[in-house]
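Protocol step 4 of 6: structure prediction from sequence.
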Amino acid sequence: MKKTKNILVCPMDWGLGHATRMVPVIENLLTFGVNVIIGADHSPLDFLRKRFPECSWVRLPGFQPAYQKKGKLLTLKVTTEFPKMMIASRKAHNHLEKLIDEMDIDAVISDNRYELYSDKIPTIFITHQLRILTQGVLAPTQPAVQQFLYSFIEKHDEVWVPDFEGKPNLSGELSHVRKMPDKKVYYIGPLSRFQLLKNENTVGKKFNILGIMSGPEPQRTLFEKILIEQGLKTDFNILILSGKPGEIFVKKQNNIEIRSHAGDEEMASLILSADIVISRSGYTTIMDLTTLGKKAVFVPTPGQPEQEYLAKTLKENKLFYSKKQKKFNLEKAVEKAANYSGLTINNDYQLLNDRIQNLLNRLN
């Protein structure tokens, strides 16, 4: 009798996005009869434990940089914390090696956790960034940074890219590069926890604006404050989801309602019923909104080149309006967003299923 395979799923813990896009991966693993073990920390662990209470879990700390209030200082701050990052990376790698033996783990699927490789078992690395962006004084170092990160990617058995290989695609030059890492790269299609909910009927109160807060502090709180301050000066009926799955609260302030978080079904319903969504331009958010075919205004996290690139590219293609946080004006943004078409994608997850089936065949 074949033993049930134990697969450790580990999202990066810089915000919720890396965890939420693991939902379809975990769902598909479970349909194959896999024993999924969640390895995460902070809010990603809170979210996935609530979403999959049937799965066992282990705390697997990563590294969280100390983000700055001024986005332009972020790159410098991350650079100065590089030694701490490498120490945390080594600790996580050593922790994984112990877990493999202690929990009889057969394979690892990690999202942007470069350090979670092993010679003992197959490890899968999920990323939408095969091209690493740097900015400011570090712009000239981009080739060296990319090669350094590729040296970690190449320690994994496979690279899964959550996008389509051809056009149209969502990530553009971020994951479509001329020189790939020296490992097998597979495009598995966009990943969204809302794929199975896209045709659900919307219920409940309708809001003009749904604000979805996400990402690292203090920028998450700064963005929320901006939206509240400007929203109170309008007649819009606004709901803000604070992106705090570890807390439970509902607050009301005039025309604005603030909730700590929302489950998948409720959140899909809220997105579909809102007139427009305002959020960060994180790649996971983009995958979610295009899966649901929803119009949005993107406000990239200051100092994050990847989000700035995605927002700029989608705006240039007349798909989604975007504005930098320091120049954001709620009323003008809603007005201008009407001139952008939005985008709807469809993914049957066959590409993802094929890769999971291939992995399980290797383990048998």
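Step 5 (inspection) to follow. The domain at 196-337 is CATH 3.40.50.2000 (Rossmann fold).
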